[in-house]
Design a protein that fits this description.
single chain; 170 residues; Nuclear Transport Factor 2, Chain: A; six-stranded mixed beta sheet; 6 strands; 38% helix; disordered C terminus
């Protein structure tokens, strides 16, 4: 008599756990969304403060940012960004409209970027772009496996003298 109620309980437990396990592997949980949002924030703070190690830690060891692949290249990118590309500017990465899709193991993301130059008065917009991202869940949490920047604008044309030596038309 005892075996029958125990068997029924086992069946009930099995059926209550299966849908949840299937859902966990097919969709992102609220915790996944929160962890991914924190990854985006850590990325922005790391690049803005020049913390190359923290920046590289937002990627998988073989992660790719545009043309930079792997931890050493990502660290090198931050050093180049800070020393050569900024020319003393103080920049802030501002993201909005984050879209995330995926399951409990991998995800795709996209987000708008507005890069602000806070060293100018008033603050100026240095660039606008969109990031498209591939993310994976690792033992250390969510990481970018690939991150690509797509510029929304081109640099303004600069006036230069024409071949005749007269000023270019405005």
């Amino acid at each position: 008599m005892r075996a029958k109620p125990l068997a029924m309980m086992a069946v009930i437990c099995l059926f209550s756990v299966l849908p949840r396990a299937q859902a966990d592997s097919m969709t992102l949980s609220a915790q996944d969304y929160q962890e991914i949002q924190q990854l985006y924030a850590r990325y922005n703070v790391a690049i803005d403060t020049g913390d190359a190690e923290a920046y590289a830690a937002t990627f998988t060891p073989d992660g790719v940012f545009n043309n930079f692949q792997g931890r050493d290249a990502l660290i090198g990118f931050i050093k180049i960004w800070r020393s050569e590309r900024l020319n003393g500017a103080n920049r802030r990465h501002w993201n909005t409209n984050l879209l995330i899709t995926g399951d409990g193991k991998a995800a795709s993301g996209s987000v708008y970027l507005m890069l602000l130059d806070v060293s100018t008065k008033p603050v100026s917009i240095a660039a606008v772009a969109t990031y498209t991202d591939s993310l994976v869940k690792t033992a250390d949490g969510w990481r970018f496996s690939k991150r690509t920047t797509h510029s929304d604008s081109t640099a303004p044309a600069t006036a230069s003298p024409s071949a005749s030596g007269s000023p270019a038309p405005k």
